[in-house]
Amino acid sequence: PNLRPTDEVLERAIGGGNVDHLEDIQEGDETALSAKRWVFATFFNRLKRQVAQNWEPGGVWRRKDPSGTVFGFKSRITEVRVSLSPKGEVAKIQVIGPSGVAELDEEAVRAFRAAAPFPNPPEGLVTASTGLITFEFAFHFEIGRPSTSWRMIRR
Predict the structure, then answer these.
(1) Beta bridge partners of 140
(2) Where does the chain have alpha helices with state H?
(3) pLDDT (0 to 100) of residue 126
């Protein structure tokens, strides 16, 4: 029998790359110093890990364009605006920056919903006027190297 795992199983077992998309930053250049400046970084780093565990852009890519002839091999970025309840449940999510591949955008939304709820969101993140925690989150997909990032917004 063939005991070799599929490419998808291997990718999930060894990981699909770094979940931090930091242009021009060498892996290993720690961002802890910048994290100390922002008291809520722990929550967002935990959220990012939960989302990354549910995001499978490689599977979408292989199913929709295994040869790379439909969408090409360029990087794709999906940006979403997310609003969470004070309990960490997804109240609203919308694509604000589509990648150009609807299936990758749908996968980003699916991954966020699958990762929820996000436990113990800090009360200090709740916007008084809306009662929600709102931020932007980006999914960066380079063939063979998915990564994510987030950015807090206040309205």
Answers:
(1) 77, 147
(2) 7-14, 32-36, 41-54, 57-64, 102-115
(3) 94
**Which amino acid appears at position 11 of this protein?**
E
CB 135 within 8 Å of CB 47: no
142 is written with which tokens? 């380079």
- Sorted by where each starts, the structural domains of the chain and their CATH numbers stand as 7-152 (3.30.1150.10)
Per-residue pLDDT of 109-155, as tens digits, reads: 999 999 999 999 999 999 999 999 999 999 988 875 555 555 555 44
Q: Residue 73: its pLDDT value, please?
A: 75
Sequence-separated (6 or more) residues with CB below 8 Å from residue 149: 20, 21, 22, 48, 137, 138, 140
